[in-house]
Amino acid sequence: MAAGKKTKKTHESINNRLQLVMKSGKFTLGYKTVLRTLRNSKGKLIIISNNCPPLRKSEIEYYAMLAKVGVHHYSGNNNDLGTACGKYFRVSCLSVIDPGDSDIIKTLPGDH
Amino acid sequence: MVKFLKANKAVVLLQGRFAGHKAVIVRQFDEGNRERPYGHCLVAGLAKYPKKVIRKDSAKKTAKKSRVKAFIKVVNYSHIMPTRYSLDVDLKDVVTADVLQSRDKKVTAAKETKARFEDRFKAGKNRWFFSKLRF
């Protein structure tokens, strides 16, 4: 199954899309706000880093399943995800509320 | 993007005296109100689960074992864990926001909820809701 292998090219494009979301869209960073956006059905895409604790990861996935929102497992740990967001801190999970000019919502959920 | 915290959703309480107990959302207040400026909901749940009934039990014993104790509570969204289950019990007329004002009103509402829960349990439906969550 080719779904597991992440090529360098798609990884960079995710970073680019995330950058665009940071610039032009609305998003929240962090576990508490991610759950909040899922509860009030504002979140459109959830991105989780690969070193997110498994209980927390499955909890977010369960909420996303109930809310029918796509979850993307970022291939990189929370440091990398924070850097990809242009922040100087770690980000373990983030929620995209409004993608702005980016097409991250159309191109990403498909993979879980 | 689907709202899932709606009435009749089965949830598990995460904090407080009833942590680990299952409840059903009766009414939700997504925007909060003045006393509670956060998303919260009115839930009715099981304070005491019905005990396990076996075939050997006499009718009197079955009746005793099938009793439940209900509670009514207002709880913050961040203190519940929603599940994929739901419980279609009509509690809207019994459990209202003003029930929690006075003790007697709460007790009568809890008794009525208990009766409805017991009917549902004896009908053999919603098995998951009436089984204790082991942790």
Give a quick summary of the entry.
The complex is a heterodimer of chains A (112) and B (135). By secondary structure, chain A is α+β, with helices and mostly antiparallel strands.
Topology pattern of chain B, helix = H, strand = E: EEEHEEH
Total strands of chain B: the figure is 5
Largest interface: A-B, 15 and 12 residues
Q: Bin the strand percentage of chain B.
A: 25-35%
Report Rg of chain A.
13 Å
State the major sheet of chain B. Answer: 5 strands, antiparallel
Helix/strand class of chain A? alpha+beta
CA-based gyration radius of chain B: 15 Å
How many distinct helices of chain A? 5
The protein's oligomeric status is: heterodimer
What is the average of the pLDDT values of chain A? 89
Number of beta strands of chain A: 4
How does this structure look, described?
The complex is a heterodimer of chains A (112) and B (135). By secondary structure, chain A is of the alpha+beta class. Chain A contains five helices and four strands. Chain A has a four-stranded mixed sheet, with helices on both faces. In chain A, strand 2, helix 3 and strand 3 form a beta-alpha-beta unit. The mean pLDDT of chain A is 89. With 135 residues, chain B is α+β, with helices and mostly antiparallel strands. In chain B, 20% of the residues lie in helices and 27% in strands. In chain B, strands 4-3-2-1-5 form a five-stranded antiparallel sheet, covered by helices on one side. The mean pLDDT of chain B is 93. At the A-B interface, helix 2 and helix 3 of A face strand 5 of B.
